[in-house]
UniProtKB/TrEMBL annotation:
InterPro entries: Integrase_cat-core, RNaseH-like_sf, Transposase_IS3/IS150/IS904. GO terms for biological process: DNA integration. Residues 2-54 form the Integrase catalytic domain. It comes from the Bacteria. Pfam families: rve_2. This is IS3 family transposase. The lineage of its organism: Bacteria, Bacillati, Bacillota, Bacilli, Bacillales. PANTHER family: TRANSPOSASE INSF FOR INSERTION SEQUENCE IS3B-RELATED, TRANSPOSASE INSO FOR INSERTION SEQUENCE ELEMENT IS911B-RELATED. Coiled coil: none annotated.
């Protein structure tokens, strides 16, 4: 969890300003989708976490 929140802060929170709480919530939802579905990890054989879990079952 510490790794996730560290990345969240460095890749989202520190890079932009938010116009409203709704804007922040939308950006957060988009980031979480990216984190789980688009971000490829070397440790996961260059797959996203969702792809890796799907083939590991």
């Amino acid at each position: 969890m510490e790794n996730f929140f560290g990345l969240l802060k460095s890749e989202l929170l520190y890079l932009q300003e938010f116009d409203s709480m709704e804007h922040f919530e939308q950006e957060l939802a988009d980031y979480i989708y990216y984190y789980n579905h688009k971000r490829m990890k070397t440790k996961l054989k260059d797959l996203s976490p969702v792809e890796y879990r799907a083939i590991s079952k």
